[in-house]
Queue: 2 jobs
Job 1
Amino acid sequence: MADSDCLALIHAELDGRLDPQQRAELARRLLADPEVRTLREDLLRLRSMLDAVGDVEPPADLKANVLSALPVPAVPLRPTLWLAARWRYAALLAGVLSAATLVYETVDGPAPGSGELTGTMAARRTALVLDTVALDTGPVRGHVSLYRDASGLGLALELASSAPVDVVVVSGSETLRVNGLGAAAVPDQKKSVALPGSGMGGRRVVDLTFLMSGREVARARLTAPEGR
Amino acid sequence: MKEDDDPALVQRCRDGDRRAFERLVERYQRPVFNAAMRMLHDPQDALDVAQTTFLKAFEHLANYDPNFKFYSWIYRIAVNESLNALGMRKPFQALDGEEPDEGPGPERQAEGEQTRREIDAALMLLSPELRIVLVLRHFTHLSYEDMSEILELPEKTVKSRLYSARQLLREQLLRRGAV
């Protein structure tokens, strides 16, 4: 029966990590115990099988996809300049927070009066829709649009479902989560979400994962083309 | 420092040279994609993880500490992205690797392909924590030290997980009559 010391010797041998003294100790144990010999033979065979599994060729378009999705840096990414750029990000964040507050007031706040509604609709007319995905199969139905307005990129979600849907939004290094959309009690609920760090710039890919009760039920990808 | 080694390329990336990043993608696309493929057992998911890995690496290059190996850093991103992708899956997808054992028929692919299928299927039955150490050791050919750095675990823990993973993989393959 192989004890833990013996197992460690066998695994060290598999990894080419035995010194002469350990090798001698392993040889002694192999001679003394047929179970240890069987275990070692199995593990050596396992290693051969693992070595025999060759690499899979990566898809031909992997590199091209990565390079085409790279953001255009405004400045070289030196640490010092990056630090200097933080002020710009702070200003951008302040803008996004302001926009998010307005969106919250519009979507989740009390029902607007007719005058306010007119203002909201007028403001929406200035938004440019960049990409739209229709969800027409599965438990979540509706549309998701990526738009740009004066405050930057945003998502408009119009969803209907039998239960509340949470949406995880990944855009660049940012991840947002929008909870409780599309509940049956509120069919075709509309929600707008401002995307942080989305000033004018290069192509931007936004990935959405739709969750019901914590389980993924759909995915979508939206793309803002470069320069729009 | 040679012109084409990792630290030099990273420095050129930081100076805004996209061609240098292209070289890094060329160098690491294969191991990153393969590590993700072995973790996820799904080409599309592996492609998504590989793409996200490189995009995150590019976006966070300014935070990369050149005192660490670049490949350890990029594998760490790939490992985290793979684990995230696994976490997003529906529970039943964890068993996707358990393909029916059809046996090698006359028109089946070569023996190497059969071995790969058996290994892939057995790998998917291990927990992600054990699977990742096998992937890094046997498919990416990393040392204990590198694995420790990537997984942010003590070397002793890495070894212990690797030993357990091999034992369990052996048991799975024995059960399937593949060892």
Note: Confidence is low (pLDDT under 50) at residues 92-108 of chain B.
Job 2
Amino acid sequence: MSAVDTPVAAPTLNKDEILRYSRHLIMPEVGMDGQLKLKQAKVLLIGTGGLGAPLGMYLAAAGIGRIGLVDFDVVDHTNLQRQIIHGTKDVGRKKLDSASDTMQDINPFVQIDKYEVALTSENALDILKDYDIVIDGTDNFPTRYLVNDACVLLGKPNVYGSIFRFEGQATVFAYEGGPCYRCLYPEPPPPGLVPSCAEGGVLGILPGMIGIVQATEAVKLILGKGELLVGRLLLYDALAMRFRELKLRRNPECPVCGDHPTIHQLIDYYQFCGVPSQAEEPATVAGDLTPAEVKAKIDRGEDFVLIDVREPHEYQIAKIGYAKLIPLGELPKRLNELNTADEIVMHCKSGMRSAKAVDLLKQSGFKKVRNMRGGILAWSDTVDPTVPKY
Amino acid sequence: MAKILIPTPLRQYTDKKDTVELGGSTVGEVLSALTSEHPDLRRHLYNDEGKLRSFVNVYLNDEDIRYLDRDSTAVASGDTLTIVPSIAGGGSTDVRG
């Protein structure tokens, strides 16, 4: 975590800044007053991924005086399809450093505070309290509920955006008596029911669109101009190229922002969302096989069936030649293709879906069924590096 | 007939259809017709007690049915029902999925 110094209030723009911001300054909606508001504003950006990329770049360009970045991830090749704040040269670097370099290149007049941490119930209030506006660019339910509750407790607006495949949502929560995330969704889905972007995929341009909606709302909040996206949920469908708007209301019974709140401090959000905390290892079930053990069985010519429960388009990207494809969704209808007498090993991309498939088969009376731990990604790492990772 | 807009994460349970048109005089009736036609959808919309799940919202046109008459909300021909489930993606790397 970098030291956070309170910047000296800057009541004026120098000659270079005036030139840089001239297209703002000549608009009455921004003008010198508005640009100085932007310069004195403090915005916290949680996540420098798909949403964080356009957010960081545009907020820096707009001349927000101080921008906090929270991220502990490292740039990898799969990020580059959408996280345009990072480049190929940045693969392997901390996202904080890469994002900060890009933003400082765009605008050296911006102060950037870097927090190389995972946002937790222990550190959230401390990090958020110094900022005027919080922007949620995270990728998981526990952090979203954490950001929401922290914003409500501190009275900070929470500029929300979320994406999945071709669809996005955006709104501003917790602003002047408006609704919060819990008013919209009181509870998260149980783990596994809603696929993540890593499982479900995302159109690379989509976070650009939603991130820019969030950046626009942040700038409007600072300027005090326009109609804010408060009490309105914006839905965007990139395939249909359609924006829709739904009404959002504060729920008087909301446990955090309602009339009689029951939540007065941050809670354990991993427990709330029913997912093991990040510190814990993924559960390994006795009887799981490693990819090397599966390879050894194939090499020994053992009689067993290897089932790949991924989707056909994933099978096209990378496969283990020995495996037969039965997508998880089709498995209940295709159990007749399997024999309870056979020894069966299931695999998928990372081992999660195949674990579900193993459970499903066991419930259906199969006894000799096991999971290949770590999926085809682990197979590529430990058995056959020619199998591409995706 | 009411038009039901199916969100991307749930299209795998509606034979990939993004809209379904069905009859019914209340929201409950239309959704019931929907889950009869696509039974796999039921457990994603309703919990074991038959109540709409708390991470799935249903809107009649632009209004949340929780602030209307919930399942009993009257539906007129030409109305649009939108199902909006919670999504968490931020386009970052979530390898824990």
Note: Residues 49 and 83 of chain A are 6 Å apart (CA to CA).
